[in-house]
Amino acid sequence: TAQELSCQVQLDRSQLSGSEFSFLDDLERRIREYMNTQDWTDDRFLAHEQIVCSLQIVILESVTLSDFRARLIVTSRRPIHGTSQSTIVTRINDAEWRFEYGRGTSLQYDPQQYNALTSVLDFYAYLLLGYDYDTFSALGGTPYFEQARTVADQAEGSGDPGWSSVGTQQNRVQLLSNLLDQRHEPLRRVYYTYHRKGLDRFVRETDAARTQMLDLLGTLQSLNQRLSRSFALNVFFQTKYQELTALFSGSDRASQAHRVLVQVDPSHSSEYDKLVQ
Fold first, then answer.
1. Can you count the helices (H) and strands (E) in the chain?
2. 160 in the Ramachandran plot: left (φ > 0), alpha (ψ -120 to 50) or beta?
3. Each residue's pLDDT tens digit, 220-236
4. Alpha-helical runs (H) found in 55-200
5. 178 close to 232: Cβ distance less than 8 angstroms
6. Taking the model in full, what pTM does it have?
């Protein structure tokens, strides 16, 4: 058996000048160990069942020698059944992370205590679990999104960036609120149908899978009309826009898919235009 996550960590401190920040290289190793050795669920995972994910951390500024501003890109993948390929389940760009880390500091998991560094790691561990479980059973990720909410509730009063529920800013709390909002339930069900009834059967039942995908685009179109400025919907398209183009490319459904996609996700129109060129 293995832990749930197989997480690669890359920390980029090139924007900081001076050799005094070399200890941040040790932080990369400590975060990797933290993510990969913690038991995040009560389920038993085999090695080939681990959720492959990555954390790209770009240190933007040193406020002090131990206080940092950073950007974090979180990505997770899932195998496509019956193939040797995988698909990106979600990719989240978190531009607001501020934490303290001193030379030699160890990272301790403590779900009862907010910590600006480890609580963000906890939050995304549970969020990635929630997304992954949603792809294997309808709404299967709810317990892990609820765990992420517990972390967010502890963090909200901290005043640290990324945790505020005030306003319409697209941050961690906003995304999680979307995912646990009943109005977004159809979007979460899309993750299950897209992966299990679309991608997992695409090789052996291509036409049926594309038909299923077109139905999903109709669902997303309806959601887009009802949910203005949905961060969770934006994350879906930011993650899947290239894959959606590839799935319909060269098919007799390409123009139909194009009409819907450019309407619901105009920011990626140039990619979708490849379907009709």
1. 9, 4
2. beta
3. 999 999 987 799 999 99
4. 118-136, 142-155, 172-180, 185-192
5. yes
6. 0.96
